[in-house]
Design a protein that fits this description.
Layout (H helix, E strand, L loop, with lengths): L16 H4 L16 H14 L12 H12 L14 E3 L6 E12 L5 E11 L3 E3 L1 H12 L2 E2 L1 H16 L3 E10 H4 L10 E8 H4 L1 H12 L4
Parallel strand pairs: 2-5
Antiparallel strand pairs: 1-4, 2-3, 3-6, 6-7
Helix pairs in contact: 2-3, 4-5
Bound molecules: guanosine-5'-triphosphate and zinc ion.
Pathway: Cofactor biosynthesis; 7,8-dihydroneopterin triphosphate biosynthesis; 7,8-dihydroneopterin triphosphate from GTP: step 1/1
Protein name: GTP cyclohydrolase 1
Organism: Allorhodopirellula heiligendammensis
Length: 221
């Protein structure tokens, strides 16, 4: 059975544990309809018990519900199409590099469900249309909000931009720190993982590739 805090009022007496699970609604967080909050709460209680904790002690009473809300937030991009952010474009007679650097993100390593955090740099060569700059960051944000590996995050973003914008070239470079390598396991704080995905001219033309990598690596200021 799922324990409840003093504030919790089970809405149903049904036998299913998930139906008895208290649900602490965070009014600030939009509900993620794809997520089974009570099932997560139940699982977190099991984990707490399994590691030797007492899920019914006061400090932990709200933890399962908090974790459910956290997963709903961290995995909010699981069922959505991040490419929808690239649908609105502006016709523009500009055919040189567009680069947005230092797009911070936080994703979840699918192997350990621990965060990996860092920055993405996105460049593309437009073909008659450009997209709002913030939309590139929105795509990163949404692709990151799934259980991920960095390589897939990197090439998913590159593919979306290449396909949806018909870009003549796309370069995506991602640098991040994986908690599963810094706080557990091999424990190497400071280790950085870099991945890149090159498409079109940035893949085939060494000069274009060198130019975009120069801009990405250029120190700020
Ligand atoms: N390629 C790739 N590997 C990742 C990513 N995030 C975490 N990993 C790695 O996934 C691997 C999982 O390895 P396993 O041997 O199955 O799991 P493990 O025993 O917990 O591995 P250790 O971390 O070495 O203790 C580890 O080497 C992690 O460093 C990622 O984004 N990309
Ligand atoms: Zn991991």
């Amino acid at each position: 059975m799922i324990a409840s805090s003093k504030a919790a009022k089970p809405e149903s007496d049904a036998d299913s544990p998930s139906e008895k699970t208290p649900f602490f609604v965070d009014k600030n967080a939009p509900k993620n309809d794809a997520v089974d909050y009570p099932a997560i709460e139940q699982a977190v209680r099991v984990i707490l018990g399994a590691v030797g904790e007492d899920p019914d002690r006061e400090g932990l009473l709200e933890t399962p519900a908090r974790v459910a809300r956290m997963y709903a937030e961290m995995f909010a991009g699981l069922k959505s199409d991040p490419g929808r952010h690239l649908e609105k474009v502006f016709e523009e007679d500009y055919d040189e590099i567009v680069l947005v650097r230092d797009i911070s993100f936080c994703s979840m390593c699918e192997h350990h469900l621990l965060p990996f955090t860092g920055k993405a740099h996105i460049a593309y060569l437009p073909s008659g249309k450009v997209v709002g700059l913030s939309k590139l960051a929105r795509v990163v944000e949404e692709v990151a909000r799934r259980p991920q590996v960095q390589e897939r995050l990197t090439h998913t973003v590159a593919n979306l931009i290449e396909e949806r914008l018909s870009a003549r070239g796309v370069a995506v470079v991602v640098e991040s720190t994986h908690s599963c390598m810094t706080m557990r396991g091999i424990r190497k704080p400071g280790s950085l993982c870099l991945t890149s995905a090159m498409r079109g001219a940035f893949k085939t033309d060494p000069k274009s590739r060198a130019e975009v990598l120069g801009l990405i690596n250029r120190s700020a200021g």
